[in-house]
Specification:
The protein is built from five helices and six strands, in the order βαβαβαβββαα. With 200 residues, it is an alpha/beta fold.
Length: 200
């Protein structure tokens, strides 16, 4: 991967305040000022990609072009081996418009039926994009297995049914600080921060 150009201001291609805060906390110590897509009044582009990487790039390029700034976007979700990688990029959609992840988890379990293969992974793709079209991608993955019924009240989304490899607790049972240190998003951001630190 080519070396990153120096960045002094970053547009975060998200309208999710929690995600914006998380990204700001990671990059501001590097001397990079952040502004969110929401604060810039940018519309949310339709996610028409067929992979996490395509959707992350689509969002980052749209924000970068509109704002005239370097932009960062992420796309993430749960990929279940026995379901051919589903729900994948549609992880949030399985929860419906009301974002009911209890319903989404039940949908995953129903789709698995009696499948012996319970392997799954949480996947996060990050994309940095420049207004001239240059992009850099970073991927983080955490492998694990799915359990039923859901366990734990920590985290969000599919966390209560995902047990990371080497652990006897689900992400829903693991303390938030520990989960954040080992998550798919943490792994992708570690790569991003290392690349930013190495920028000339």
């Amino acid at each position: 991967m080519a070396a990153l150009r120096e960045i002094d201001r970053l547009a975060i291609a998200s309208h999710n305040p929690g995600k914006v805060r998380e990204i700001e906390a990671l990059v501001t110590p590097l001397g990079i000022a952040c502004v969110s897509a929401g604060d810039l009044g940018l519309p949310e582009p339709e996610e028409t990609g067929t992979t996490f990487a395509e959707n992350a790039a689509l969002k980052a390029l749209a924000a970068s072009t509109a704002a005239g700034l370097v932009a960062l976007a992420d796309d993430s979700g749960l990929a279940v081996a026995a379901l051919g990688g589903r729900p994948g990029i549609h992880s949030a959609r399985w929860a419906g418009p009301e974002k009911d992840f209890a319903k989404a988890m039940a949908k995953v379990e129903e789709a698995l039926a009696d499948a012996a293969d319970r392997r799954a992974a949480f996947v996060c793709h990050l994309c940095l994009a420049w207004p001239d079209g240059e992009t850099h991608a970073f991927e983080g993955r955490v492998e694990g297995t799915l359990v039923w019924p859901p366990r734990g009240n920590h985290g969000f989304g599919y966390d209560p049914i995902f047990q990371p490899a080497g652990e006897d607790r689900t992400f829903g049972e693991i303390e938030p600080a520990r989960k954040h240190a080992m998550s798919h998003r943490a792994k992708a951001f570690a790569q991003l921060v290392a690349a930013l630190r190495a920028a000339p």
